[in-house]
C-alpha cells in the first residue's frame, strides 16, 4: 500500500508519520508538498500534525485552501482512506470533510503527554485491529484540541457511530462528549487529535497506535487484492 504524507509549511509531524509507515508498518510512503495538483498512484492519504501556516486565523484555516487539498477532497469522495492527526484533523474540519470545529483547550494551555483512549467503534477501516471498548495509550500534543459541534451534529455522530475514539478516565482538553476522533458518515475519513504515529513501538512508551495503521492496510488489501 502506498501512502501520501501531505506536507504544509509548518508541518512538524510529517517525519513521524513517514517513519511509522516505512519503518514500523513496512509500507510505502512519500512526502507530498502542499502545492501538488495530483495524488494519482496513492492508496491512502495522511495529514500530519504541526502548525500549518503558523496557525494564522485558525488552526488549519489557511492549509484548507492549499492546492493539494482539492485532490484530498476528491480522493476522499472516491472512498480513499484519509487520516488527519492533530493539525491534520483541524484541516479536515476546516475543509468540510468532517463536521464540527476545534476550540482552544479548556485550560488554555498546550498539553503534551500520553492519555488513554477508548475505542468506541472497532468496526471501521481504521480500527479493525482493536477490540470494541478497548482502552489504549496514545500521546497528545496540542493547544487547540477541544472538539465542538452543535446538538444535531452530535446526535448524528452518535447515531451513525462516527465517534471512533473518546478520552478515557480524563478529558484533557474539554472536548465535547470526550470526543478524541471521528469519521465522516461514509467511514473513510478519520480525524483524531491524539498521535498514533508516535505510539508505534514500545520504546516510545506504547505500540497501540501501530494497529491503527495495520487496520488501514488490512482493509485495503481485503478490498483491492483479487485472489487468483
Report on this model:
By secondary structure, the protein is α/β, with parallel strands linked by helices. 24% of the residues lie in helices and 25% in strands. The chain has five helices and eleven strands; from the N terminus they run E-H-E-E-H-E-H-E-E-E-E-H-E-E-E-H. The protein has helices at 14-25, 67-77, 87-94, 151-159, 210-224; strands spanning 2-7, 28-33, 44-47, 82-85, 101-103, 111-119, 135-142, 146-148, 163-167, 179-183, 189-192. The strands form two sheets. Strands 2-1-3-4-11-10-9-6-7 form a nine-stranded mixed beta sheet, sandwiched between helices. Strands 5-8 form a two-stranded antiparallel ribbon. Helix 2 (67-77) links the parallel strand 3 and strand 4 (82-85). The longest helix has 15 residues, at 210-224. The two termini are 19 Å apart. The mean pLDDT is 95.
- As a percent range, the share of strand residues is 25-35%
Termini separation: 19 Å
Helical coverage, percent range: 10-25%
| Major beta sheet, strand line-up | 2-1-3-4-11-10-9-6-7
What's the story with the biggest beta sheet?
9 strands, mixed
What's the total helix number?
5
Runs in which pLDDT lies below 50 for 5 or more consecutive residues are none
SSE run: EHEEHEHEEEEHEEEH
Which assembly state applies to the chains in this document? single chain
Shape: globular
Q: Total strand count, please?
A: 11
- SS content category: alpha/beta
Please give the radius of gyration in angstroms: 16 Å
Mean pLDDT, rounded to whole units? Answer: 95
